[in-house]
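User: For my dataset I need records formatted as: sequence, then structure tokens, nothing else. Please produce one.
Assistant:
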Amino acid sequence: MQIDILTLFPELLNSPFEASILKRAIEAQKVVVNFHNLRDYAQNKQKQVDDYPFGGGAGMVMQIEPIDRCIQKLKAERDYDEIIYLTPDGDQLNQSISNALSIKENIILLCGHYKGVDQRVRDHLITREISIGDFVLSGGELAAAVLCDSIIRLIPGVLGDESSALTDSYQDGLLAPPIYTRPAEYNGWKVPEILTSGNTPEVEKWRENQALEKTKNTRPDLFNDPN
């Protein structure tokens, strides 16, 4: 998989991809992640990428030309499955979306800034819009990092135990059950006996019941979610 991220502030993206699972995935060549500074595609010497909105109003708007020039250059090099704009009013990210994107070959992520991008970018260049929640960030870089993490960890061979991702919350429409590790007792707080019994069928049944109960009490909306 290759992920190309279009941004005005590539330095904001360095840290997430230089540690932990994302770093290992890149080093293992499971994924290629490139940052493209949109200022490099501005035509004037000031590297201007924004301007005032037509019709007046507060804030600045990212111009279509630098974005289009960058996207066209990338599309001339390879085909892309999705060109995604990170925006608060996009489809809210969930596990189903991450699962679907994890099997794509090439993806472009566009990080917005200021009041957003010229609407013509969204109308003619973008194939999908994704939000990480009903709130506004200063820019799309952190949202892009979140989306990348949710996708890359699902690529086969990235996690040490590939079955681990299959037992995450939301993979089966439920929250994950409680988990415990050693010691079996700490400060008088004990691990449920069933987990130390060695009875695998009963352990799995306990986990399923716990997942159902936790979802019922914490996120009952998931039972009605078609995704």
